[in-house]
């Protein structure tokens, strides 16, 4: 089938020799999380970045990535750590992870935090699901993560994007991510693909430097770090519990409820004000009763 053919093609492309992941070493770490809707090409992008077939990737109606995974490589004096994610960012994906175990695993694998998050999209196939994926990213990591997000317009060129002026939803999404875009074509020839990966990693490096080399962090990464020396299953349980208590995000269900409640109140007040104004107007314009002439 097509999927298997694609897998074989990829194998040919990257070579099927065993590949040792880079051992944790002296090099400073450069962390990258792959996010996006299912089928966007996260795993294929991860393989391009690592330059070997680390993550299973193929065309399939059911997601082939079921659990978070990580691969690493050396690049320009860094140890680049790439975390691939399954469907964590759609409503369906979150529903399939009610106790937040998979989301907890994503946190633990990418701890102490990513230097950048890559939102994988496809220019020609940009849909509401991509926007939903960005909302899912914000819910899982908090809105501050947008300052670390790069939108990958996969399979296209940046020139295409710049000329592609009619997709307002995509432009709005890119604007939310500070205008950071890259273009990776996982099907390009080796040399071209490597050049694109080079550009992307340079962008990640720049983002890291802009933040003084520190990775993105939040309360949940803080908890993961605080529990670093506890047994892995305990650590995962604690982090998953924290995520579940926060409504699946580092942001807190309470605050989200307040925001929603705030919006509802504003709307109710506006409606009430409008109704009062209308009432006043109608009252002023009411037909005057005829002067009654008293028979006196
Ligand atoms: N045309 C094109 N197709 C791609 C590209 N990257 C991935 N794909 C295809 O998109 C499909 C889904 O890829 P996959 O990596 O499994 O997506 P994931 O679910 O986000 O991990 C596969 O059939 C890939 O061959 C690309 O750069 N260009
Ligand atoms: Mg995948």
From TrEMBL:
Assigned keywords, A-Z: GTP-binding, Membrane, Nucleotide-binding, Transmembrane, Transmembrane helix
Basic and acidic residues compositional bias, start-end: 1-16
Keyword hit for Transmembrane helix: yes
Residue ranges of every copy of the AIG1-type G domain listed in the record: 27-225
A Gene Ontology term for the protein's cellular component: endoplasmic reticulum
InterPro entries: G_AIG1, GIMA/IAN/Toc, P-loop_NTPase
PANTHER family for this protein: GTPASE IMAP FAMILY MEMBER 1, GTPASE, IMAP FAMILY MEMBER-RELATED
Family: Belongs to the TRAFAC class TrmE-Era-EngA-EngB-Septin-like GTPase superfamily. AIG1/Toc34/Toc159-like paraseptin GTPase family. IAN subfamily.
Protein name, UniProt field: GTPase, IMAP family member 1
Organism for this UniProt entry: Ursus americanus
Gene, per the UniProt record: GIMAP1
């Amino acid at each position: 089938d097509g999927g298997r053919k694609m897998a074989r093609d990829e194998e040919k492309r990257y070579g099927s020799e065993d590949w040792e992941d880079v051992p944790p070493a002296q090099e400073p770490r450069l962390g990258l999380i792959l996010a996006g809707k299912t089928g966007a090409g996260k795993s294929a992008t991860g393989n391009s970045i690592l330059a070997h077939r680390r993550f299973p990737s193929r065309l399939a109606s059911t997601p082939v990535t079921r659990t978070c995974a990580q691969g690493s490589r050396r690049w320009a004096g860094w140890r680049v750590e790439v975390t691939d994610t399954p469907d964590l960012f759609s409503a369906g994906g979150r529903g399939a992870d009610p106790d937040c175990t998979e989301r907890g695993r994503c946190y633990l694998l990418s701890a102490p935090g990513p230097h950048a998050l890559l939102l994988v999209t496809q220019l020609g196939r940009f849909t509401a699901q991509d926007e939903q994926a960005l909302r899912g990213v914000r819910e899982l990591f908090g809105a501050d993560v947008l300052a670390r997000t790069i939108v990958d317009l996969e399979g296209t060129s940046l020139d295409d994007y710049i000329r592609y002026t009619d997709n307002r939803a995509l432009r709005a999404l890119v604007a939310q991510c500070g205008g950071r875009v890259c273009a990776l074509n996982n099907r390009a020839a080796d040399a071209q693909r490597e050049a694109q990966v080079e550009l992307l990693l340079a962008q990640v490096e720049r983002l890291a430097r802009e933040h003084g080399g520190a990775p993105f962090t939040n309360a949940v990464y803080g908890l993961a770090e605080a529990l670093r020396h506890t047994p892995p299953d305990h650590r995962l349980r604690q982090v998953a519990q924290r995520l579940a208590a926060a409504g699946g995000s580092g942001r807190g269900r309470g605050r989200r409820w307040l925001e929603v409640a705030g919006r509802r109140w504003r709307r109710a007040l506006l409606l009430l004000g409008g109704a009062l104004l209308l009432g006043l107007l109608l009252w002023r314009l009411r037909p005057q009763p005829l002067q009654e002439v008293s028979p006196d």
